[in-house]
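Format notes (please read before filing issues)

Several people have asked whether sequences and structure tokens are stored in separate files. They are not. Every record keeps both together, in the order shown below: the sequence lines, then the token lines. Line labels are part of the format and must not be stripped during preprocessing.
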Amino acid sequence: MKAETFEDLIKWNSGVHDMLAERMEKGSERNGDERAKGLLTYLATHERTLADTVRKIGERADEKALKTWLYEHLSEGLPLEDDREIDFDNWGYEQISAEVVDIHNQIIELYRSMDERAAIPEAEVVMQELYDMHKDEIRHLSDQINNGRAL
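Then the structure lines:
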């Protein structure tokens, strides 16, 4: 997907979380490893919550920020356009954990760079909120993953 406005970027981001949740739900049904299955079930719920949170941020964002063009901000494609195979069906706990952390770190980096280059203050506020939310969530997610390792 090519995002042209901040609104497109927010729709893309909620869509990524929805896509991950769907694939995690399917993977948890097919994965034979009980630890991996438990992790996928937890992560799917977490991704659905993130998708909803991103949508809500977009709904309450300033209209001027949402309609701001990204052409001068986004020179490359969005993360997850590398067509990597993400099905989680036969993945182990560590592979799932690494992939999820990597995806979230790409999203965090995207919002960090967007926040630094926001053309108007309203857009900067939205990008900062999304950046902060994702950064807090990856910390929480990492804690949960590490707790699962201890089991």
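For reference, the curators noted about this record: The radius of gyration is 16 Å. The helical segments are 6-30, 34-60, 63-66, 93-116, 121-150.
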